[in-house]
Every structure is written in C-alpha cells, then in structure tokens.
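check these tokens.
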Amino acid sequence: MTHSARPRVPLRWSGRRQLVGDQTLVMGIVNCTPDSFYDGGRHDPAEHYRQLIAEGADLVDVGGESTRPGAAPVSAEEEWRRVSPVLETARGEGHPVPLSIDTTKSEVAARALDAGAAWINDVSALREDAELADLAARYHAGLILMHMRGTPRTMQRNPTYADVMGEIARELADAIARARERGVAEEQIVIDPGIGFGKTAQHNLEIIRRLGELHRLGRPILMGCSRKSFIGAVQGLEVDERLESTLAAHTASVLAGAHIVRVHDVAPHVRAMRMADALLPTEP
C-alpha cells in the first residue's frame, strides 16, 4: 500500500507557531478523575504529569471530568479542585511542554488558562459551552474540537450514521465555523473525529481507514484510540491488555494522516510514532 504524504499544517497557540506534519506529536493524558475507564485513581496526578514529560510527551492533556460512556457530569468547582494540583505543578516548573485543559466548561478553562494552560480540548466542539471559543480567542489558545454524538451519558445508545466519515467531516466543519465566528483564528484549531464518542467499533475502524478525508478541512488531526473499548470489541481484550493494539491503531492513523495522538502510554508511543513517521513519504 502506498501512503500519501501527510500535509504540513500551521498551528498557533499562546504566541507560538509551529508547522506540524513532519513529526507526530504525542499528547500524554493526565486523568484527575476517580472513574476514568482506564487510569482513574491509579496515579498521583502531579507525579504522573512529571512522568509523562520525562517519557517524551510533546503536550499534556489534563482533565477532571470523566467522559467514558455513561459517565455522570461533575460541577465546575469539583472539576477545578481535581485538576488544579497539576496546573500548579506545571506553573511551578515553568510549563516545560504546552498543557491542555480537557473540559467543556468555560469556568474551568478560564482558570486553567490563567494558570498557564495553552490549549483547550473540548469534546463537545462548542455545543456545551460556546464561551470556550471566546476564551480561546482572548488568550490566543489552541482549541481542539472533537466530534461527539450526544453526551457521554447517551453517546453509545445505538449510534447510527448514513455515512460516518462524511457526517463527521460536515459536523467538524460546522464547529470550525462556529469557532471562527467567535474570533478564533483558523491556525488555532485542531480537529478530532472522536473515536469511541457516539460510534460503534465498526464506525471507529472506518474512521481510521478513511481519516485522510479530513485533510480537506485544512486543520491538524488528533486521534485518541488509547485503550478504548473498540479494541476490546475487535479482539476481546481487557483494558490492561490493549497497549499493542493501541499502538497499531495509532500507527495506522498516522499513516492515514494524523498529526497528533492522545495517549496513556507515552514512552512506547514516542518510539512507535518515530517509526511511523519514517514510513511516511515526505511532502515536497
């Protein structure tokens, strides 16, 4: 199989500008939640943040509200209580890598941006709280817009698409337009097709196969396959057994054009993504 070159795309956040596409960026996950599907309560969040940076994370994504299927929402105050120790640690250490706040609440995002966060990761693509776009515009922060059908409580109740990739592309284009209308520059935006968020296992596999179709939106693509349930559905594996399959899914995603992978296991991904990068043809 011949793979096409991954497009180089300009990306801008917090006064920095980078052309992404030559090397896959690895985003490490810090879950400050007791109920996340894989690592909830396993780690001290501040220490885990340091560990992911030591393992080579290019960015770190911190969240205080679980978005696993069926998860119940928490208050903004509780969400901030959970994530603030990581923000304090990052600020104390001079933010060695850009930090992303994974939230759908502008109250939480504003406090995180004041504490030095450089990115907002919104799994609702501005459907929950459009003021997140206002914050991204005001702080010149990066903004990740993820596709999701429904809410974490409802998203896995018989998700149905006539054309899964066509519908994701249209809905992400609409989200980009909403962000632009509120003052977010196009170069601040990253898109995420939302693996596992209102999709069946077969939908997720089709997204990976057809990922290159999202290039027409002109923005970097983030993929988050890490240890998710579609791997269990395909292979019958428990969450602790899914690392190798995660690496395979993310390698396939990079070969299809992904620019960023969001992962629990940073060190093995850094090694695997460098190999995937070497397999891609270079863009002239």
Residues 205 and 275 are 22 Å apart (CA to CA). The chain has one domain: 14-279. The two ends are 20 Å apart (CA to CA). Residues 14-279 form a domain with the TIM Barrel fold (CATH 3.20.20.20).
